[in-house]
Amino acid sequence: MAVSLFSAAQSLFRARRVCSLGLSIIASGCIVPFVSVAWAASAGDSRATIDRGAYIARAADCVACHTKPGGVAFAGGYGIQSPMGVIYSNNITPSMTHGIGGWSEAAFARAVREGVSPNGTRLYPAMPYDSYAGMTDEDIHALYVYLQGAIAPVDTPVGPVTRLRFPYNMRNLMRVWNWLYLDRTRFAPRPGETVAQARGRYLVESVAHCGTCHTPRNFMMAAKAGHKLEGAQVGGWYAPDIAAGTHGPLGSWRDDEIEAYLRDGHARDRGVAAGPMGEAVEHSLRYLTESDLQAITAYLRQQNRSDSSGRPVRPTTDPARAYQLDSPDDRLIRHAARAERNATPGLYADRRNYRDIDGGAALYMAACASCHQIDGRGTRDDFYPSLRQSSAVQASRPNNLIMTILAGVHRDGADGAARMPAFRHDLTDQQIAVLVHFVTDRFGSTPLTPSATDVATLRRFDTADLPAEARP
Ligand code: HEC
Ligand code: HEC
Ligand code: HEC
């Protein structure tokens, strides 16, 4: 799913204004007293059920995919990039004409857990029904009550219709897909599992569908068996291996760091949630209770596999080394930037004018050092994070670093907002390639040398979701 920060931020902003975003509906008293025909049968449902449904809708992130940029929450029309083409989400407001207003609870459950609409239409797994298949009857009921009873119906058609090319336009092929790949097992605690691990497994595998992004897919878009949560490409981004165990890349993170990352979108000297992960934090994970975050972490820890020895362990930097001023690196970068500037007089006349800069150090000085500091260690309060321990810089693939430079960071976490400017209009592909080499060489553990063409490829993912007027 190539999701754009820009469009998601926009949709969130506008959706807030119309007062129809998940919990905020309840919090701000904007509940619409709408009861559909189908829902009237279950009128005995209490406020507690609606609240539970709202929580599950958050945890399952229904709103993010079912709201188009600038559109009304749950009214659909959001385009999801897939290797087969763009798949648009549907209107799931209780509209009798365009939404799920006339649907029975059983029909709703079948769509969400098996990917089959009441008229028999087969859904593509861009709707993560293969994850939701494990959802319990209680949670499906609560979701149904919430969507039917607390969301305003939107009676107009939304956005574009999905048109995939042959043979993907044959939705009946999804019958075969379901037969091959759909695991219909409902969640149930397993013997030997703690309560927290079981809850975490339910959240990770079914509700919060972490595997939609973190589990590699085969050519049919189905999760690769035996590689659960081991890392996968999502649009231009790379969702890292999070099958933590004690040896995996997350093995060196403390539990409270994983929880902070999920809740706030950043964990000091570990990493920052940008791109699709930033959206997952902003729309969904920051609303989870502490005990649910602990449960997710407990479950990730449990993924201790015997084959973990060959997987890369991210180096940890000695914290005592951080924040030495005037370090040798400092002096080198200053020196290199000065040499580049002397060779190109007038370089810094306008700091925002990067056009003529082509050396890595000078580019870093001009575009990045004001926040991440000359030595890449960020500010002491971590408001501008250190690049030295950052997972995007330490990674063996340049994807997340390139995407972060192109798209910036635009995320609201539980502890506030994080904003890094997007450089998509300011830096060329060649400049970004040079900068990535400089940053990974100086601050990372493996110097990376992407080409300008590599950057151009990722740039297409970055802009695919932007409104036409905002494209470069
Ligand atoms: C990752 C994105 C994504 C998430 C998250 C998501 N959906 Fe969907 N959903 C889609 C897409 C895309 C479609 C359309 C699929 C197609 O056309 O085959 C869809 C279709 C549906 C449909 C079928 C509607 C119809 O008219 O046939 C229902 C119902 C639905 N989603 C409910 C939900 C609920 C409830 C949640 C949260 C529990 C949810 N979705 C979360 C992407 C998503
Ligand atoms: C929409 C796709 C998506 C979903 C859903 C998603 N992630 Fe992520 N995740 C990513 C991407 C992309 C990154 C890399 C972000 C970056 O570096 O800025 C990431 C990064 C992470 C990291 C940091 C790993 C590291 O080594 O830096 C953790 C931990 C994580 N995700 C956990 C989860 C958990 C747990 C869930 C489910 C509750 C989840 N993610 C759901 C896409 C996703
Ligand atoms: C105006 C200040 C500012 C500038 C300029 C800036 N950044 Fe950032 N950067 C931030 C903020 C804020 C964050 C996110 C902090 C958070 O999420 O808590 C961030 C995050 C990052 C991350 C994510 C780290 C991770 O662990 O995933 C990387 C990488 C990064 N910046 C690289 C750069 C590079 C390279 C440049 C120069 C092209 C740059 N930044 C310019 C403020 C800035």
Automatic annotation (TrEMBL):
It is found in: Cell membrane. The keyword Cell inner membrane does not apply. Residues 301-326 are annotated as: Disordered. This is Sorbitol dehydrogenase cytochrome c subunit. Gene3D superfamilies: Cytochrome c-like domain. The chain crosses the membrane at residues 21-41. Residues 48-151, 195-304, 355-443 form the Cytochrome c domain. Coiled coil: none annotated. Keywords: Cell membrane, Heme, Iron, Membrane, Metal-binding, Repeat, Signal, Transmembrane, Transmembrane helix. It comes from Asaia krungthepensis NRIC 0535. InterPro entries: Cyt_c-like_dom (IPR009056), Cyt_c-like_dom_sf (IPR036909), Cytochrome_c-type_DH (IPR051459), Membr-bd_ADH_cyt_c (IPR014353). Its main location: membrane.
